[in-house]
Design a protein that fits this description.
Number of helices: 19
Helix content: 40-55%
Largest sheet: 8 strands, parallel
Number of domains: 1
Distance between the termini: 10 Å
Strand content: 5-15%
């Protein structure tokens, strides 16, 4: 079945109070998707973000981002007053996320909301008790981790006192008692996140929209995951990484990408039947309808960088778990909808792995137009079982990218797509190429439909600061735009 969708992070929605949330604007975007004839809404990871604000560096692989909780919903429940929300400074520019101001304001409000919720008897409700019981495997460790982290003024896990950093039983008991109230606040936040997200997802599904979620292959070092389950990772006896993740020098970076995430002890995962991965994936398929697995090639081979190196240049390739993990997943979880993020330099072995899983890989039009050589990303080379994008969250907007192309590459793109010289709205010709391609699935970033320039770029890999901040204008999703998208979607058989 041919289908199409739009990529728009939750943070980029034009909700009030400084950042996109599960608010009425999110529901309005679902309505826009339906009016546009789309079947998919792709978002970025929903995890709680820390230093650098990247959704790919989360404090937990399970916990949701407190920033996405709709404050209006908390006001309607009587947990907050609108005057309290309006008194906070969430930033001045409605189309830019100011994470520092969000951090300084949002948690104070959520603490007030938690106190009000518990005062109204939340702990006695069946829904709350069921949530706590069903998620106890990760919830209690996460809430304690965050409470302790706050107690140490937010410093990295590696700087905590040794007794609690290494989870000595007497320390765990002491800190659970010391931070009982704070643990309850984080429990409330996760409960509220869960019910708000599931309500939004249900609304999308009822309107024929499936959610495409994104699972990072790695977890952050400074996370509840590495603290609670250190045996899963390549850590020394003090809980510090032996090597970290990244990728070698490539088109994005001459020195490679140093992500800094701890690597997995894959032998241990195999010995345990990939039990942690099965829990993680099962949880993801409750959050999302389709899961895009980031950095898929890392399951075949991964780039291991010596801990402490300043760049990724001195890493080496190591063997990953291969098909065994996905074989286990299919047997335990059944056939699921997965997108394999198979970008970058692909060896024969990773191509074989993607093919064996049967999962569609990704095609990026912005990677196609190198005038020096034939590219697998050119539409005439696609097979049906793939997902085509004009660009992703790691790319520039198509308009900005096209304008910055070397002259020979731009001329190649112009000839390939038959773009007249001086053509306005050139981004629509790339959208047309994606939608008209043989690929079963086409996903277009919202910025390209809006014809935005480089100011709307989501992320520039290997840089810190200024990323993940773009927000869509409140009046962007017009009926005229919906009709234009729908007409092209229908023209190429994706309605």
């Amino acid at each position: 079945m041919r289908r199409s969708g739009i990529l728009l992070p939750v943070a980029s929605l034009p909700s009030p109070y400084g950042i996109g949330t599960f608010s009425k604007e999110a529901y309005a975007f679902v309505d826009f998707l339906k009016a546009s004839g789309q079947k998919l809404w792709q978002i970025l990871p929903l995890g709680a973000t820390g230093y650098g604000d990247s959704p790919y560096q989360s404090f937990s692989t399970f916990a949701g981002n407190p920033y996405y909780i709709d404050l209006e919903a908390l006001c309607k429940k009587g947990y907050l007053k609108r005057a309290e929300c309006n008194a906070c400074d969430f930033g001045k520019d409605p189309e830019v996320v100011d994470y520092e101001k969000i951090y300084l304001s949002r948690f104070g409000l959520l603490k007030k909301a938690a106190a009000a919720a518990y005062a109204k008897g939340l702990e006695k409700t069946a829904g709350y008790r069921e949530f706590v019981t069903e998620n106890k495997d990760w919830l209690e460790d996460y809430c304690l981790y965050m409470a302790v982290k706050d107690g140490f003024d937010g410093v990295c896990l590696s700087e905590w006192d040794e007794d609690i950093r290494l989870r000595r039983p007497e320390a765990l008991k002491k800190y659970r008692a010391k931070y009982e109230k704070e643990i309850g606040i984080y429990r409330f936040i996760q409960y509220e996140f869960a019910i708000q997200w599931q309500a939004l997802k249900a609304y999308a599904n009822e309107n024929g929209i499936q959610i495409v979620g994104d699972i990072p292959i790695y977890v952050a070092y400074d996370s509840a995951d590495t603290w609670a389950d250190p045996e899963l990772f390549l850590l020394d006896s003090e809980g510090r990484p032996l090597a970290v993740a990244g990728c070698p020098p490539d088109a994005f970076s001459a020195t490679g990408q140093l992500w800094g995430n701890p690597l997995y002890r894959w032998e241990y995962h195999k010995e345990t039947g990939f039990s942690w991965w099965m829990k993680r994936l099962d949880y993801c398929f409750k959050l999302y309808d389709i899961v895009r697995i980031d950095h898929f090639r890392g399951f075949d081979e991964y780039w291991a960088i010596p801990y402490g190196d300043a760049t990724a240049q001195n890493g080496k390739w190591c063997k990953g778990p291969g098909y065994a993990l996905f074989d286990t997943m299919k047997k335990q979880l059944g056939e699921k909808q997965v997108i394999a993020e198979d970008l970058g330099f692909l060896t024969k072995s990773v191509i074989r792995l993607v093919k064996r899983t049967g999962y569609p890989g990704m095609k990026i039009l912005q990677f196609a137009f190198d005038s020096r050589e034939e590219s697998d990303y050119l539409p005439h080379n696609y097979t049906r079982n793939c997902v085509v994008y004009t660009g992703t969250h790691d790319n520039d907007t198509t308009l900005s990218w096209y304008r910055s192309l070397p002259p020979k590459d731009r001329e190649f793109a112009r000839q390939y797509l038959h773009i007249p010289r001086g053509k306005k709205e050139v981004e629509w010709e790339f959208i047309r190429a994606a939608l008209s391609s043989v690929a079963d699935t086409a996903i277009i970033p919202m910025q390209d439909y809006l014809g935005l320039g480089g100011e709307a770029r989501i992320n520039l890999p290997s840089t810190l600061g200024g990323n993940w901040v773009w927000r869509m204008g409140a009046d962007a999703c017009t009926p005229q735009l919906a009709e234009r998208i729908r007409a092209m979607t229908k023209l190429y058989g994706r309605l």
